[in-house]
Amino acid sequence: MIGRPVARIRAFFRSMAGHIFVILTLGMSVAAIIALLVAERNRHHDYERVRRQRVVASAVDIADRIRRDPRRIEAMIADQAIIGASSAPDGISISDPDADLEAILAERFGPGSRPEAGQLPIGLCFPNESRQEIAAGLVGAPRPDCWVVRFTDGRGVRRAVALTFPRMAKPPSTLFNPLYLLVIITASACLAILVARLVAKPLRRMAAAAEAFSVSLDPEEIPEHGPTEVRAALTTFNLMQRRARAGFAERTQLLAAISHDLQTPLTRMRLRLELVDNPELKERLLADHQAMQTLVREGLDLASSTESREDWSLLDVDSLLASMAEDAQELGAPVRYIRGCGATARVKPNALTRCIGNLVDNAVKYGGSADLGCARHGSRLVIQVRDHGPGIPAAELDQMFEPFTRGASGQPGGRHGTGIGLTIARSLAMSFEASVRLRNADGGGLIASIEMKG
To answer: What are phi and psi of 448, to 5 degrees?
Structure first.
């Protein structure tokens, strides 16, 4: 039970649809992850840009105030009267300067400002800061960010200012979040399955048409719709089918013409053979003449069996078998209708009738009698013709369908036959997408089966 699903999964991944599914799933998943990486980097850059913009805006504001009223602003900074700005403690060095921030400040402050900027731990900036301990709701809250900015003002005085800002929480990374990865892979797999089925559907239709063409020379043409490339392939395949049918029709016409042209010399030969005086020689020559006529007639039947232009229709199989048995009995043939199956099949009626007729003739001729019946096996319908003759060795069963293959005397296609009766039956079955098989019956005799869709 477990092996069957595993085999189906393996078969799927070996198919073109499976390959497309794997490629699209991996490709779209990788593309989505790369897009998340790019978005993650952009978010990080935006985060850093906003932080720097706050520092630049505050630093430029303080520099402009000092330029307008240096003494008052210096006093306010010393007393921490300007919210978010205070004097930087002496002796603190910027161990990790922000080069990008310094470049922006140099552009805003002007030449000669030689700015230095970097972020420091809040404890180094304000070691005695305790306001949050007395502020309602701030106990245990994250302490603000602290930046130290040094620059030279327009009077050549070196300034050092500590700037504080509310802590900005860095956005959490979503790149390796299992939920995001699951959504990406699931969405990619669903879309890949849809695309794989759409791409493989025309190929499945063509494969089914090719299989139908292999067992029937008159299959229905494939509807030509879909993308341009698919329509072109289907059009070419239908053209191939039409040309193949035309080739077989031409062969049938050629054989028919040959058969017709042979009728006149064969008739003249018959008349001349009647004038032979030696009775023994006359009988032998007439037998050879009859064999020639039979061979020509059955050769034409074989050619015409592959060129069936008959329309498809629904047929009651039980009624057909019963009527064929009754017709044969009226002519004195030992044919019996044994059992039915209540089936209705979509076939070419004349081709099916001729196919069963050939098998019945073989059964009566070489087995003494014929029993007709049908049965269902799953989705398949099987029509059986059984005789009560000697049967055929198992190793020779498949060979009996080859043209002009003759078995031993008393067997189908034996020494007194042409060896193409079963070949004609198989060709007729192929015209309505069926197959003919032979097997020896358990109680003796031979069973010829016509298998088709039920």
So the answer is: -100, 125
For helices 317-330 and 349-367, the axis angle rounded to 10 degrees is: 50
Q: For residue range 21-64, what is the model confidence (pLDDT) as tens digits?
A: 888 888 888 888 888 888 888 888 888 888 889 989 999 998 89
**Tokens 């059986």, located at residue:** 384
Fold of 216-302: Helix Hairpins (1.10.287)
Strand arrangement of the beta sheet that strand 158-165 belongs to:
85-87, 158-165, 145-152, 116-120
Domain residue ranges in the chain: 3-41+173-206, 47-165, 216-302, 311-453
Q: What distance lies between CA 294 and its chain's CA centroid?
A: 51
Positive/negative CA dihedral, 290, 296, 299, 301: negative
Q: What is the pLDDT of residues 74-94, one digit of tens each?
A: 888 888 888 888 888 777 777
Provide CATH code, domain 311-453. Answer: 3.30.565.10
pTM metric for this prediction? 0.50
- Rounded CA gap, 208 and 292, in Å? 41
